[in-house]
Design brief:
By secondary structure, the chain is of the alpha+beta class. It has 5 domains: about 190 residues, Orthogonal Bundle (Hypothetical protein af1432); about 140 residues, Beta Polymerase, domain 2; about 110 residues, Beta-grasp domain (Ubiquitin-like (UB roll), Roll); about 140 residues, no CATH class; about 90 residues, ACT domain (Alpha-Beta Plaits, 2-Layer Sandwich). About 50% of the residues lie in helices and about 15% in strands. The strands form 5 sheets. The protein has a 5-stranded mixed β-sheet with strand order 1-2-5-4-3. Strands 11-15-13-14-12 form a 5-stranded mixed β-sheet, with helices on one face. A 4-stranded antiparallel β-sheet has the order 17-18-16-19. Strand 8 and strand 9 form a beta hairpin. The radius of gyration is 39 Å and the shape is elongated. The two termini are about 60 Å apart. The chain binds manganese (II) ion.
């Protein structure tokens, strides 16, 4: 930024008398502030002056001249004292030792928050020049300035830095000029700060293209001389006509700003003289009805050009701008553009959103002001449906006043917009589906954070992925974007259906073998007929359906072999058992009621949609189905299971100090992990019941574990828990 101090410490500048900044500022404040408000602002000035003592701007002036000018720019807009104090103090946190806390104590919380807000904006840097990025960057700035006054101070700061950019190297002038043109000028425009907007554009142009600027401004100066006569003549005619109609009005001539002439020429909508030869006038009257009277009077004076009239009073522009626009055939055939508006409309046109933070001398004025601000916003909401442009504006305004989006940086400095409440997982999916599916951790501002962390404006987010990582169903609890939700759901479903297809194939092969057919010898034609019969496209679909229990393996096998429907007797007992390895994934589930482990006699139930659920033979939950072999599948353990299984244990232990530790150590020594433990008082107070959920390999392992636990003196009773009675407790 142009305002950074150079780091040498000469004595106070001999070039300026000590109180010159002081008096310049005081003069401005006296125009509209009460004496006690002036004192407050001057206190902020003295504090800032002391804090920046010895610092110089690159131009050689004392540093304090910068915050004073920034405050003066805002005083011209008649902003309230907190805004001016924040302007005076806007660089003290960045450039001196002063803390936010200290500012709050001396000048109140509001001022401290404003200064802090401006300092935060200074820290984010605009990197890419892409158009879409500029848009997001503007939104980010607005979103970060929760108080519009923050952005007002920032714009004034940028304006002064732009005015004094000449002392910088050409490269830096170009870069800052571009940034201003792409970021800050559009914000000023959007907020309706017309004067600041135009000056920022002209200064940007001057610093990006110094030569073109020089040529064009010379041409404008020359042309202005020729125009004088026409302008004077039209001005007199308008004034005269309005006076005749007894309309009290202030009439002025106006000129397009330099940069808008340049862009119009660059867009080839006209040569210099065509662009410049349009004469502009402004008529300011006392109220809305008078605007329309004045319009009628002018249309009687010069003929209006058809199709050029615009009523921005009935339908205000998105940024709140109101006026009547008309173009007339002037004398000598030159087109004349006229804007007609009331005084109040004029204030808003010049100061835009700042008009709502205008300084008012009494509380009554203040509440009237708040009410007007509210009405203004209300009106914005109402016009939302009327023009696409205002929808766009509202969206920008919303991030400011109704914050519902966050803007964060990718590791490459790209800005990404996410809905408010979005987490690191949302960000990962926004970057790329693969990044989302494989994310395992996140670094936010260079620090590791949980994936569920909510992102804040300006965060730098870096996702850490692992090749074999998969989405976790628990992410669904905290993702905020539809995209992330859809991708996680899709992934889980696909994974389940893939695993179900593998299981389905095994179930089908088992059935085929039971019918004395070799699965590998079934020819294509049979499969194709089956697909047609079922009306499905792929073999995979049928296998998935079998795995999910939507089709019976034996029925599919028979159809595939073109065999007749079996009788109930034939079906029974003919199927060999299907082996369970424990590695089938989501297609095979182990019932939580009985928690079967390798070595347990087991039964399988095909659960529609859920796949195969394995219970122990003696599980009380399945007692009523046991006698109905149509409902269950014969399953057995593969001798080579390679995973850990969960079991629930209940121990009655004597109440002795340290007994829990002893049991836990015993479990660990038997090579098992504890997933969960809970305790309750036993049948009499001498005993406690402990419930453990532990992980073991198989029945043998469990037996070993129970043996070693029995050796502990305090353990009175130990049993494995199966069945529904303890289901809730053991979850
Ligand atoms: Mn500054």
């Amino acid at each position: 930024m142009g305002g950074k101090p150079a780091n040498h410490n000469p004595p106070a500048s001999p070039l300026l008398p000590a109180d010159s900044e002081d008096s310049q500022l005081r003069l401005r404040l006296k125009e509209y502030l009460k004496p006690e408000d002036i004192e407050q602002v001057m206190a902020a000035y003295r504090f800032s002056d002391a804090a920046h003592a010895g610092q110089m701007r690159k131009s050689g002036e004392p540093y304090i001249s910068h915050p004073v000018t920034v405050a003066c720019i805002l005083a011209e807009l008649h902003l309230d004292p907190p805004s001016l104090m924040a302007a005076l103090l806007h660089d003290v946190m960045e450039d001196t030792e002063v803390s936010k806390h200290e500012l709050a104590e001396k000048f109140g919380k509001t001022v401290a928050e404003l200064v802090d807000g401006v300092s935060k904006l200074d820290k984010i840097e605009f990197q890419t020049a892409a158009h879409a990025q500029a848009e997001n960057f503007r939104k980010m700035l607005l979103a970060m300035s929760q108080d519009v006054r923050v952005i007002l101070v920032k714009l004034a700061d940028r304006l002064h830095n732009m005015r004094t950019l000449d002392v910088m190297a050409p490269e830096k002038r170009r870069r800052i000029g571009k940034e201003t043109l792409e970021i800050y000028a559009p914000i000023a425009n959007r907020l309706g700060l017309n004067a600041i907007y135009q000056e920022l554009e002209d200064l940007s142009f001057k610093n990006i293209h110094p030569r073109r600027y020089a040529v064009l401004s010379k041409a404008i100066k020359a042309a202005r001389g020729n125009r004088k006569e026409v302008v004077g003549k039209v001005l007199d005619a308008i004034k005269h006509r309005l006076a005749e109609m007894q309309i009290d009005a202030e009439v002025t001539g106006r000129e397009k700003h330099l940069f808008s002439i340049y862009t119009k020429m660059a867009e080839k909508t006209g040569t210099f003289s065509q662009v410049f030869d349009i004469y502009g006038f402004r008529v300011i009257v006392k109220d809305t009805p008078t605007c329309y009277l004045a319009l009628g009077a002018l249309h009687g004076l010069y003929k209006p050009i058809p199709g050029k009239f615009k009523d921005y009073i009935a339908i205000p522009k998105a940024n709140g701008y109101q006026s009547l626009h008309t173009t007339l055939f002037g004398p000598f055939g030159t087109p004349i553009e006229v804007q007609i508006r009331s005084r109040e409309m004029h204030n808003i046109a010049e100061a835009g959103v700042a008009a709502h933070w205008l300084y008012k001398s009494s509380d009554a004025d203040l509440s009237a002001l708040q009410q007007r601000t509210h009405q203004w916003l209300q009106r914005l909401l109402e016009i939302q449906s009327e023009s696409a442009d205002s929808v766009e504006f509202l969206e920008h305004f919303k991030v400011d006043l109704f914050p519902d989006e966050v803007y964060v940086f990718t590791p490459k400095g790209k800005i990404m917009a996410l809905p408010r409440g979005a987490t690191a997982v949302d960000f990962a999916y926004a970057v790329h589906t693969d990044v989302g599916n494989r994310c395992v951790a996140v670094k936010i501002n260079q620090e590791l954070a949980p994936l569920r962390t909510e992102l804040r404006n300006g965060d730098h987010v870096e996702i850490i992925t692992a090749a074999h990582s998969k989405p976790n169903p628990s992410w669904l609890n905290y993702v905020a974007t539809g995209k992330a939700r859809a991708h996680i759901r899709h992934f889980l479903k696909t994974m389940k259906s893939e695993e179900s297809a593998v299981l389905g194939e095994r179930l089908l092969n088992q059935a085929l073998r039971a019918l004395h057919a070799d699965p590998s010898l079934i020819d294509e034609a049979r499969w194709e007929k089956l697909l047609r019969d079922y009306g499905v496209k792929t073999r995979e679909e049928i296998l998935t359906d079998i795995g999910l229990g939507k089709r019976l393996n034996i029925m599919v096998a028979r159809q595939l072999l073109a065999m007749a429907e079996p009788s109930g007797e034939q079906r029974q007992g003919k199927l060999g058992a299907i082996t369970i390895r424990g590695s089938e994934g989501m297609a095979v589930q182990f019932a939580k009621c009985c928690r079967p482990i390798p070595g347990d006699p087991i039964l399988g139930f095909i659960n529609k949609g859920k796949g195969l659920v394995i219970h122990t033979h003696d599980c009380p939950a399945i007692r009523k189905f046991r006698m109905d072999p149509d409902k269950w599948l014969d399953v057995e353990w593969d001798p080579d299971t390679k995973r850990l299984f969960t079991v629930n244990l209940k121990l009655a232990v004597a109440n002795q100090p340290g007994v829990l530790a002893k049991v836990a150590t015993g479990i660990a020594e038997a090579g098992s992990n504890i997933d969960n433990v809970s305790m309750e008082e036993g049948d009499n107070s001498a005993y406690t019941n402990m419930h453990f959920t532990v992980q073991i390999e198989d029945r043998e392992h469990l037996a070993r574990l129970m043996r070693s636990l029995r050796k502990i003196q305090e353990v009175v009773r130990i049993s494995r828990v199966k069945g529904l009675a303890t289901e809730n407790k053991s979850q």
